[in-house]
Design a protein that fits this description.
By secondary structure, the chain is an alpha+beta fold. It folds into three domains: 2-222, Glutamine Phosphoribosylpyrophosphate, subunit 1, domain 1 (4-Layer Sandwich); 235-371 and 483-552, Rossmann fold; 562-626, no CATH class. It contains 29 helices and 19 strands. Helix 7 runs parallel beside helix 8 (300-310) and helix 19 (476-486) packs parallel to helix 20 (488-502). The longest helix is centred in the middle third of the chain and has 19 residues, at 235-253.
Length: 626
């Protein structure tokens, strides 16, 4: 992986401020400690920080064609670069390097903007065509690699791998976007295309942006989207095809000139990746895992069993249950408010992995692809009842029951029906939004001040879902999977892993999110993914010859952080100082009385508000550092 930066004059061809460009580039040194480069032309500057993975001695960037017509700064890996190289050679293009970067240059010359449809990998790049006077920005189909851009007040446009590089530019409009604040407090992250700043944007996954100096800045163009169109309904056929596609994806992503390892949590997804790797490699897999003190969240025994079965060398990192030393580090790492607390152990496992290897394969994407989240199952249960009772009856009935039913945070799960009742009082999209929200509509309504509500002018974060609904498939399971592909996956999961890994100069690859595999899985009938309450049904069936039954069919776990106990114990005073202090109140966004209620009810053990408190804590840390 690497870090990229660029500046282009949208109005004329003023000289680039090289010192500023280099300062922006240096903010991303963690993404590329192995080398750096700068390219300057009239009205244009491109910069690069390199993490050398392929063609270690060559492929320095920014890279230009021999005639200087095309120049690129690029972050990522093109897994099919050897096949494309052969195809382009047959068309007469001559290559000087052994890497994948040069393939992008000639793919542009051969196929123009359609070149991105030929690239199979994870990438974000900025490409300048001197002959056409065009800057072409592109991001990979699933959004594994990030790309930010910002039109500045002085007529320049900048782009970068991370927001911190754009923040170095003195003309960035750093006023906070209040709609983005609403989205953050609902989702726990700011979904694309927004950022927390009014003047900066994320290029959405599977999109390109063509910039022509002297012309108005256009809108991003979509070149790839996941299409749920079921064609395979036979479980045996699906299982056989699935293993073939997964093996192919893993094989492609093993291409590197440095050692490649794996994350191995002991869950189904990472175990599947390690099983495929073991069958394709001529040396033991270097695997990394996290161990938790709480046995309810400790998957180490399963990771050890899978590692033993495949002769993998497993390195385990024991997480301190009170490891909250990273709080300040995390708030700076993500550049904008980000509230997934599993970023803490993710940071630690990346730190561990980098001591062993430079590249790892992860199991990310399995839940979105194969319907592994518990919320999918509950959504289908709710949809059956929505189909039976019209909204005109459900809204008053379940709305009343939801208001009357007590919030039993500490009761057994089957007694915690309040959220389900509240969801049933809503339509399908609003109900799913309610199930994923960090702070639901009711909490946010109590939290916000009258002036903040007025400033929002009725805007609600659920609008993000409605924006994507037009292209969403009709089946209720596929529809919410699609919404997660457009929001949760790039905004939360992939953002978490990219920043945590690149903080340690570690490249993470995601074979389960190979676009070819994703497209094939989208062609499976929904009942092959979720059947009889069993998520990842066909995935688990396909893996039965490869993994133990107790690994495949045990309850789902995850990276758990003891937030609730932290906020009542060692971080008690810190929470009160942050959430009830002047900085939060001075925003004018919040109702002070409800902030105090939120904190006190949690710390007295009356409610579990750990997720909302964490989100607000990360927001306060951002405001303090901004």
């Amino acid at each position: 992986m690497c870090g990229i930066v660029g500046l282009i004059d949208l109005e004329s061809q003023r000289p680039v401020d090289r010192e500023l460009l280099e300062q922006m580039n240096q903010t991303q040194i963690h993404r590329g400690p192995d080398g750096e480069g700068v390219y300057l032309a009239p009205g244009l500057g491109l910069a690069h920080r390199r993490l050398a993975i392929i063609d270690l001695a060559g492929s320095a960037q920014p890279m230009s064609t021999p005639d200087g017509r095309v120049t690129v700064t690029y972050n990522g890996e093109i897994y099919n670069f050897k096949e494309l190289r052969r195809e382009l050679k047959a068309q007469g293009y001559l290559f000087r390097t052994q890497g994948d970067t040069e393939v992008i240059l000639y793919a542009w010359l051969a196929w123009g903007e359609a070149c991105v449809k030929r690239l199979r990998g994870i990438f974000a790049f900025g490409l300048w065509d001197e002959a056409q006077k065009v800057l072409f920005l592109a991001r990979d189909p699933l959004g594994v690699k990030p790309l930010y851009y910002a039109p500045f007040a002085d007529g320049w446009l900048g782009f970068a791998s991370e927001l911190k590089a754009l923040k170095k530019h003195p003309k960035l409009d750093r006023r906070l976007d209040l709609e983005a604040v609403e989205e953050y407090l609902a989702f726990g992250y700011v979904p694309d295309p927004k950022t927390i700043y009014r003047g900066a944007f994320k290029l959405p996954p599977g999109h390109t942006l063509t910039v022509r100096p002297g012309q108005p800045l256009g809108e991003p163009v979509c070149y790839w989207d996941v299409r749920f169109a079921p064609t395979v309904r036979d479980a045996r056929e699906a299982a056989q095809g699935l293993i073939a596609h997964l093996k192919q994806a893993v094989k492609m992503q093993l291409v590197a000139d440095v050692p490649v390892g794996a994350f191995l949590s002991g869950g189904v997804d990472s175990s599947a990746v390690v099983a495929m790797m073991a069958g394709l490699m001529d040396r033991p897999v270097e695997a990394c895992s996290i161990a938790f003190g709480d046995p309810a969240f400790n998957e180490t025994e399963y990771a050890k069993e899978v590692a033993g079965r495949y002769g993998a060398r497993l390195c385990v990192y024991q997480v301190d249950p009170d490891d909250f030393s990273l709080l300040e580090r995390l708030s700076g790492l993500y550049d904008e408010p980000y509230a997934d607390s599993s970023a803490l152990p993710t940071y630690r496992v990346c730190e561990l992995a980098r001591q062993q290897v430079k590249v790892v394969l992860s199991g990310d994407g399995g839940d979105e692809n194969f319907a592994g989240y518990r919320r999918y199952r509950w959504h289908l249960y709710e949809e059956r009842l929505r189909a039976w009772l019209p909204l005109s009856l459900r809204r008053p009935l379940f709305g009343l029951l939801g208001r009357l039913y007590p919030k039993l945070d500490f009761a057994p799960r089957f007694l915690r029906a309040k959220s389900t009742l509240e969801s049933l009082a809503r339509d399908s999209v609003e109900g799913y939004f309610h199930s994923v929200a960090v702070l639901g509509d009711g909490l946010r309504a109590k939290l916000y001040s009258a002036s903040f509500k007025k400033a929002l002018a009725g805007y609600r974060a659920v609008s993000v879902f409605y924006r994507h609904l037009e292209k969403a498939p009709p089946h209720p399971l596929s529809r919410v999977q699609y919404l997660d592909f457009k929001t949760y996956l790039p905004g939360d999961i992939l953002t978490k892993v990219d920043r945590a890994s690149m903080a340690h100069s570690l490249e993470v690859r995601v074979p389960i999110l190979d676009p070819g595999l994703v497209e094939w899985v989208a062609g499976l009938a929904p009942e092959l993914k979720l059947r009889g309450g069993e998520g990842k049904y066909v995935f688990k069936k396909a893996l039965e010859p490869y993994l133990p039954e107790r690994v495949l069919y045990r309850p789902k776990m995850g990276f758990a952080v003891p937030l609730a106990s932290w906020f009542r114990g060692p971080l008690r005073d810190r929470v009160r100082a942050a959430l009830l202090g002047e900085r939060m109140l001075d925003t004018g966004w919040f109702n002070p009385a409800f902030l105090r209620t939120l904190v006190e009810q949690h710390q007295l053990g009356l409610r579990d508000f750990s997720a909302p408190i964490w989100a607000l804590l990360m927001l306060e840390a951002f405001l303090r550092q901004n």
